[in-house]
Amino acid sequence: MFTVPTTMRAIVQGSDPPGKQILSTIAVPEPRPDEVLVRVHAVAINPCDWKMPSRFPTPGASSGSDFAGVVVRLGSAVAATPGLGIRVGDRVSSAVHGANPVDPTTGSFAEYVCAVAALTWKVPSSMSFDDAAAIGGCGIGTAGLALFAPDTMGLRFEAEDDDYQLLDGPSSASAPRKPFVLVYGGSTATGTMAIQLLKLHYGAEKVFDHRSPTCVADIKDYTRGTLRYVLDIITDARSVAVCEAVIGRGGGRYVGLEALPEDVLAGKGVRSRSVKWNWVLGISLVGRGEALEEPYRFEFNQERRDWGENWFRHLVQDVVDRGLIKPHPPSVRPGGLASVPEGVQMLEKGQVRGEKLVYHIAD
Fold first, then answer.
1. What is the third-level CATH fold of 153-279?
2. Which of 133-137, 198-202, 240-244, 359-363 has the highest mean pLDDT?
3. What is the 3-class SS of 230-273, one letter each residue?
4. Cα 290 to chain center, whole Å?
5. Where is the secretion signal located (predicted)?
6. pTM
7. What's the rounded Cα separation, in Å, for the pair 216 and 208?
8. Which of 19, 161, 188, 195 is the least buried, fewest Cβ under 10 Å from its Cβ?
9. To 5 degrees, how large is the angle CA 361–CA 362–CA 363?
């Protein structure tokens, strides 16, 4: 019988300089009632894995978000939760809020990690841990929250003939139309995940080069001036300007993945007053609230937690089981856990293009 050890290797933040990620030996965490303890087999690297330590340096805090592994222990409430069906020995994947100053023991860059059971998905037997970690929870959770939560973009899926169709807005007696949705930054890991969710296959309907001087005109021409929905993966000054310019005269909804200035959120200093501006933090799906510095602070939100559980337990699990979602191309790097900080630095420096860095914890 496998015995969970009391200590483990993990990547944590050092103090010299603040936020530097180092290999250390720490205690194996105990799962909360709604969590599972997972023996980690593979992890994938995301922008949040360098942004969190950079913005909120916390010596000793564990790092890492996306992971895949095997459940080795259940929290006290997991077995009794209706519909979960998670057991010791299950292969699972998800993401956690690593490098968190409020919860410093949680991070996936470790031999073991605690994760909310209802926000995990079961890895099919035909899928490798590499692919599972590359799908993880960060990209598919953040993209889902931005596109389909009722308080963000508010798009919706409906099942039709054992398939899904994307519809515009709430149900109505009239036939709904399939909307145009612009994903700015579609070649990124989260961008490719968003595109797959929108089309439920790999690839966009039309690709535009953001470096082209005619980019705005090309998008407006293709959408015939009717574009209403924009997901901005990049969320910098240029991307916000382009996204605002291509939304049709009738207005629409913009959702970014970084904090927007208050004047933009209020519709000041921008051309269109009919655009609803918003931005999301994928970690808010956990719903516990985070006492981070503004503008990243958010309160406990049961509705968001409920939405996140439904998203992962039903839609994500279904599209994974049916092979409708593919990972951003995983690139398995050598060196195991000890080499993860090098991969984080590569991503921070912009040295990763068109692939997802994946590491085997046991290597």
1. Rossmann fold (3.40.50)
2. 133-137
3. EEECCCCHHHHHHHHHHCCCCCEEEEECCCCCHHHHCCCCCCCC
4. 17
5. none
6. 0.91
7. 9
8. 161
9. 95
